[in-house]
Structure formats: structure tokens, C-alpha cells
């Protein structure tokens, strides 16, 4: 059974640019969540989508956005990148939260 | 607001030792608790999921317990091995939402 797939694995971007990260959930999983992990702040929730609807949103600026497609694949976008956006971005999927979440390997974003 | 604390922050033990990692949370109105393992710079691997109606779950050398009323969970690792070296994270949902709140983790080093 294929796991949660995140692409790309690594990204280097320049300040002011924008970036799009992709997440393919496990087949049959309709809930997709995104998290940012940094050494200082730990794991912080960005947003959660279920059947193409954003159900929950974390405390991040509007530069962070996401969407979910009809096949449950999800993308997140960060515009006007700042140095502080350098982090490991993790995607997780579940049939529903009560079933527990499976995480992907993450995308390591470096902003220079 | 849900807050999760993990003690200790770091632990170094000799191979073969049995050990306990602790997790506490402030809001006991959770529907489950999940333990994860993270190898350096990698994604999260789910270890155990305990539903709120359960008191413990076991997988191989791992045993996790949950005491909802006191807001505590423990992860017991039997006969530790160098391959167990990683950061262990516990996570609980915030309120009735799909948002997971993570502790800062316990970094475990098992010395040969």
C-alpha cells in the first residue's frame, strides 16, 4: 500500500519568490493536513482539508495557502518567501482523524 | 487551548535497557492520542494510536498507555536497541478538530 507522497523532497528558493508543494495522500484518505516543522517552534499546524474544503486553519499569515483537488491530492503555496519560512513541511492523511494520521517524508524548503 | 508536554527532552541509555517516555496534555477531551517516531530530518512514522476508550496499545517492544482523566500517556520501550535512536513525539487533537497538537519530543539515544 503506497504511503503519503510529497514532492519535491528538497527545494531552494530566494526571498520574495513563491513555492508550491504537493502531497498525494493514501488511496481512500480524504483528510489531508499540512504542518511546518522548525527547530525553534517544533511542529505547527498549517491547515486541514477534507473533500476539497478547508476545515481547519492554523495561525499562519495569508501568504500560506492550500487547496485540495477532487482526487484528494493537495497542494500548499507560500508566496513572497521569507528566510523564516525555511522549514520541513509535512503532509499527513487519514480517512478521518479518529483513524490516526499517516505522514509523508516531507519537503525541506530552504529560503536564501 | 491544548498544550502537550514531553519529558524528558533527551534521554541516553545503554542498549538493552527498558525505558519510559512521558507525555502530558492539558485538555482531556481527546478522541485519541498518537505516538510517532522521527529520524533526524525525516518524516514522522506512526508507532501507536490509542483511542480514548482504550487504556493501552502494544506493538512489538512498544507499549503505550493512556490515562485521559489525568491527561497523561506513557510510551514504554522494552529491551532498547541502537536502531531505536530517534525523536519520539506524541500528538493529540485540539478540541474536536482534526488539528494535531504535538509535544516538542524526546530525543532518545541508545548506545551500543
Structural features, described:
The complex is a heterodimer of chains A (112) and B (112). By secondary structure, chain A is mainly β. Chain A has no helices and 11 strands. The radius of gyration of chain A is 13 Å and the shape is globular. Chain B is globular. The interface between A and B is medium-sized, with 28 and 24 residues.
Question: What's the arrangement of secondary structure elements?
Answer:
The complex is a heterodimer of chains A (112) and B (112).
Chain A: E1 5-7, E2 10-13, E3 19-24, E4 31-38, E5 42-50, E6 53-57, E7 64-68, E8 74-78, E9 87-94, E10 102-103, E11 107-111
Parallel strand pairs in A: 2-11
Antiparallel strand pairs in A: 1-3, 3-8, 4-5, 4-9, 5-6, 7-8, 9-10, 9-11
Chain B: E1 4-7, E2 10-14, E3 19-25, E4 32-38, E5 44-51, E6 56-59, E7 62-67, E8 72-77, E9 86-93, E10 100-102, E11 106-111
Parallel strand pairs in B: 2-11
Antiparallel strand pairs in B: 1-3, 3-8, 4-5, 4-9, 6-7, 7-8, 9-10, 9-11
Show unreliable segments of chain B.
none
Oligomer: heterodimer
> What percentage of residues of chain B falls in helices of 4 or more residues?
under 10%
User: What general outline of chain A do the C-alpha atoms trace?
Assistant: globular
Features:
heterodimer; A: 112 residues; mainly beta; four-stranded antiparallel beta sheet; 54% strand; B: 112 residues; 11 strands; 0% helix; globular
Amino acid at each position: 500500500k503506497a504511503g503519503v507522497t510529497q514532492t519535491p523532497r528538497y527545494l531552494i528558493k530566494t526571498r520574495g519568490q513563491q513555492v508550491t508543494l504537493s502531497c498525494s495522500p493514501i488511496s481512500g484518505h480524504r483528510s489531508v493536513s499540512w504542518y511546518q516543522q522548525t527547530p525553534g517552534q517544533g511542529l505547527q499546524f498549517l491547515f486541514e482539508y477534507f473533500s476539497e474544503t478547508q476545515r481547519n486553519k492554523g495561525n499562519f499569515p495569508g501568504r500560506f495557502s492550500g487547496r485540495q483537488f477532487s482526487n484528494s491530492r493537495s497542494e500548499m503555496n507560500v508566496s513572497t518567501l521569507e528566510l523564516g519560512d525555511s522549514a520541513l513541511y509535512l503532509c499527513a492523511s487519514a480517512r478521518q482523524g479518529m483513524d490516526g494520521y499517516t505522514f509523508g517524508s516531507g519537503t525541506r524548503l530552504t529560503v536564501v | 487551548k491544548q498544550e502537550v508536554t514531553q519529558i524528558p527532552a533527551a534521554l541516553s541509555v545503554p542498549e538493552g535497557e527498558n525505558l519510559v517516555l512521558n507525555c502530558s496534555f492539558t485538555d482531556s477531551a481527546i478522541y485519541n492520542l498518537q505516538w510517532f517516531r522521527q529520524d533526524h530530518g525525516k518524516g514522522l512514522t506512526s508507532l501507536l494510536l490509542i483511542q480514548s476508550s482504550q487504556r493501552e496499545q502494544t506493538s512489538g517492544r512498544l507499549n503505550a498507555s493512556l490515562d485521559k482523566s489525568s491527561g497523561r500517556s506513557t510510551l514504554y520501550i522494552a529491551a532498547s536497541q541502537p536502531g531505536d535512536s530517534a525523536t519520539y513525539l506524541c500528538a493529540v487533537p485540539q478540541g474536536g478538530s482534526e488539528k494535531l497538537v504535538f509535544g516538542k519530543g524526546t530525543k532518545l539515544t541508545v548506545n551500543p
